[in-house]
Structures are given as C-alpha cells and as structure tokens.
Design a protein that fits this description.
The protein is of the alpha/beta class. The protein is 39% helix and 21% strand. The chain starts with a strand and ends with a helix.
C-alpha cells in the first residue's frame, strides 16, 4: 500500500533534518529521513553558512525517499532559522555563501542606522525587537561596507526561500521569514518601502511575496532527474522555524503562552493584531508573522546555545550525564543573565559564564554540574521574567506554558521552569517545527482544515507531559535575587 507523505525540511542553526509526515488512524506520524550538521564556516574574520551543503543534504533526503516503494511525496516544505539571506545575481547564480547572523560585522549596526532613521520609527513600522543581526542591520552594514555581493545583487532570498529557489527555480519571499528581517510593515504585512529605501533597496530586489500555504513551484527537471521524483510541488510553509513550531502548539484553548526551546528560546503568545506600544518597545518585544493571519508576540531569549557551546569543550558529553551532575549541584549558587552580550559568541562559553559570575560578585562555578545548573536555573528565571511581562501585555489570562521543540525533552529544565513561572508546563511535541511544517502542507492541499483542528490532532497524536510547580517559595526568593543580579 502506497502512503501519501509530506516531505518537511527543518533546518536549525546547529543541525538539520528531513522528515516524512503522514496521516494514519492514530493521527499524524513522523519518520526521520536524514539528519545532518549545520556548521558555521569561519574564514577571513567572518562567519558563513554553507548553503550548498544544506542543499545537498536536502537532495540526499529526497533521493532516499524516492527509493521507498511504499511512499508517494505529495509536497515539500522548508523552514529554517531567521534573518539570514542569500544574494542572487542577474544571471540567477548565488553571489557567495550567506553571512551567518553571529558574524561580528553587525556589532553596533543598529546605532549606525538609527543615525539616519529614528529607532522608535523603525519599531513603530515593524514591531520587531531590535537585535543587531536583524536583516535590516545586516543589509545596512553590507551597504556601508561597499559589499561586492550586495552591489551586484538582483534578488535577496531568505534561507528557506533560497533553498526553494534551488529546488524549483522560483523566487519568492515568504511572509513569516521576511517578518524576522525587520523589513515588513506590521500593519500591511508587506515589505516596507521606507525601510528598503534606507538600505538602498526596493521591492524589486525580492521575490514574489507569499504567505504560508501558497505554492512556490514544482521541482525542476534537473532536480527530478537527480532525485528520481516527479514534478512535486514545493509549498511555502511558515518558513521561519518558530512560525512552524508555534503552529503545532497542542493547545486546546487560547489561554496559553509558548516557549519554543532550542538553540534559542522564544517565548510568546498569539495575537490577531500586532502590539506596538511604548511598553512593547521598552521591553523590546517582537511581532513576528504567524500562520493563518496570526501575530507571534514574543521575546527572543538565549537558549541551549549556552550549554551547546560548553559541551563543545567537554567532548560532547551526553545530556543525561550532565543533567545528573546538575541535579546534585547546590541550588541557586550562581546565576547569569542568559541574554548578556558576553554570551553571544564567546571563544569559551565556560569561561564567559565564570567571568559573569566573578563580575557580579557571585561564587564562580567550578564543576560541570555547577555550570549546567547555573544555566538551567538562570534560563528558568529568565522565562519567569519574560512571562511576567507577557502577562501585562496579554488580553487573556495565561494559564499554561507549552514548551515545544528539542528542549521539551529536558525534564530537569522543564521542572525548573514550572517552579519558576508558577503555572503548569506542558512539554511536547519535541518535533513541533516539523509537525507545523507538515500540517501547513496538509492544509495547502485540503487534508487539514484549520489551525485549531490541526492542534487538536497533534494533541491527540503526540505524548505530552505536564510539570506542576514545586518548591515555589524558594524559587520566588531566587527570582528576587536573579532580578537584582541582571539589573
């Protein structure tokens, strides 16, 4: 029996995978096809992504699927991390490898742009939080540096759109990924001409504007020959991975906040319209595009990047071993602000954490267990801080926090988070991004009706675990201490 399957490409800032999604009597099922690393390339003082390697991994996945006798690929969808982009020349060729958002060239970039257009105006137009690596500031930096690729550019394609182009030959600009760029007007939900002009661009420098669920194109003859597949359509899903992940939050009512937990932690709520006020600007909250006309009012928080960089110096020690060491470490011995600039991209994350603790007159972590516990407790308390801000912005009560993504498998951090925020934490699905990707493809061809129905199906298909708050008095005292440190 041949299964109709959706092919999801899900690329994060440290790794990627391709996944098959299909419907069965038990609900929605996922099957991993291939998994691969996504390495930063450091050369000449800059950091790049290898777009060609990512393309080849996607092709490898499609070839593996084409060899399955019982599978028919109905469509393909691609989601990735945000803000980064590829420059394409007039001949249709990529002009160079794309810069990575952790490249140091954008340090101080917002201030350079704000000398020409006020910060408050940029925020009022876009509703996007100011982060130095937003595409707007990347582009302005390239312009000021007389970058050769930008000088010759015909089209600018965000990473998921660039991969779609490499598969289909069609150039599009997908709404959710474009919204991360700080180039989209939050009200019109289109590219903002005034900001494009500020960085020397026009709408003609971008592909056809599309929204989640629209068709990009079909596999080119070349790709069909390479993979052995036919003219499979490529669908614009929520191209920003967080947009796909939030689409798959298994909530049965709207009174929830979400925490997409991975390299980055993104905490927010869904709204029907952007929230752009003096308060949201002061708190630096962002209004990113979501599926089905929603806005994701959220805050970016440094996430498991902290631990991943420490693990790189520990010989890739397993998570269970590190968590066991953290569990036996002294509680609240040392705390950090996860979003301090010190942790953006240090040569040695462990030393950066020790320096922060030394500079704030705290005990300096000495063991791996102390480092890991410091990271987990600090993340949980930072989540509490952001959730408190969200409660002041939300029009509805926040009764549950849904933790989705790879971090939802971290039981110790989930329990710490419940303890810190004081409401139930529902963990799962860990594969939320792939699920949201698949479900948008399904909605595009009519196999799924709407987002609430989609979420109910996911809720009934995927095992979830709920963590109740514990030891709240001690965590409340730790929160006061945390706020004093980070202030």
């Amino acid at each position: 029996m041949i299964r109709n399957c959706f092919f999801a490409v899900d690329l994060g800032a440290t790794s990627g995978r391709t996944i098959l999604g299909s419907f069965s009597e038990g609900g929605l099922e996922l099957e991993e096809v291939n998994r691969f690393p996504n390495h930063l390339i450091e050369v000449g003082g800059h950091f790049y992504w290898d777009i060609y390697a990512l393309y080849q991994y996607v092709i490898d996945g499609l070839k593996l699927v084409a060899g399955k006798q019982d599978v028919k690929i109905v469509s393909i969808g691609i989601d990735t991390w945000g803000v980064d982009f590829v420059c394409v020349g007039k001949d249709g060729h990529l002009l160079r490898q794309p810069y990575a958002y952790r490249d140091p060239q954008t340090n101080g970039a917002p201030e350079a742009l704000f000398s020409r257009i006020p910060r408050s105006k940029v925020y009022k137009l876009t509703g996007i939080q100011i982060m130095n690596f937003n595409s707007l500031f990347q582009l302005d930096t390239l312009r000021r540096n007389n970058d050769s690729a930008l000088a010759a550019v015909d089209k600018i394609l965000f990473i998921p759109d660039a991969l779609s182009y490499m598969l289909t030959g069609e150039m599009v600009t997908e709404y959710t990924i474009a919204s991360t760029a700080q180039l989209v007007n939050a009200q019109t939900r289109k590219l903002e001409p005034e900001l494009l002009k500020a960085v020397g661009l026009t709408e003609e420098h971008f592909g056809r504007f599309v929204y989640p669920g629209e068709k990009v194109g079909t596999l080119t003859k070349e790709i069909q020959k390479i993979t052995g597949l036919g003219a499979v359509p490529v669908i614009a899903v929520a191209g920003h991975d967080t947009g796909s992940a939030v689409a798959a939050v298994p909530a049965l009512n709207p009174n929830f906040a979400y925490l997409s937990s991975g390299t980055w932690s993104l905490m927010g709520i869904e709204t029907d319209a952007p929230a752009i006020t003096e308060e949201t600007e002061k708190l630096n909250f962002t209004n990113e595009g979501g599926v089905a006309g929603t806005i994701r009012l959220l805050k970016n928080i440094c996430g498991m990047w902290l631990l991943e960089r420490c693990r790189a110096g520990w010989g890739e020690t397993s998570y269970p071993e590190l968590i066991a060491e953290a569990e036996t470490a002294e509680p609240f011995r040392s705390l950090i602000n996860p979003d301090n600039a010190l942790f953006a991209n240090p040569d040695d994350m462990e030393n950066a954490i020790r320096k922060y603790c030394m500079d704030t007159n705290q005990p300096v972590p000495e063991t791996r267990g102390q480092i890991v516990r410091c990271i987990f407790e600090s993340l949980a308390l930072r989540y509490r801080q952001v959730l408190d801000d969200l409660r002041g912005l939300a029009s509805q009560p926040i009764e549950t926090l849904h933790v989705i993504g790879g971090g939802s498998r971290n039981e110790l951090l989930n329990q710490f988070t419940a303890n810190a925020v004081g409401i139930p934490v529902v963990a799962g699905p860990s594969e939320a991004t792939a699920l949201g990707n698949v479900m948008m493809q399904a909605m595009a061809i009519g196999e799924a009706a709407d987002v609430p129905g989609m979420r109910k199906l996911i809720h009934n298909s995927i095992p979830l675990k709920t963590y109740q708050p514990q030891n709240m008095e001690n965590w409340g005292q730790a929160y006061i201490h945390f706020k004093n440190i980070v202030s």
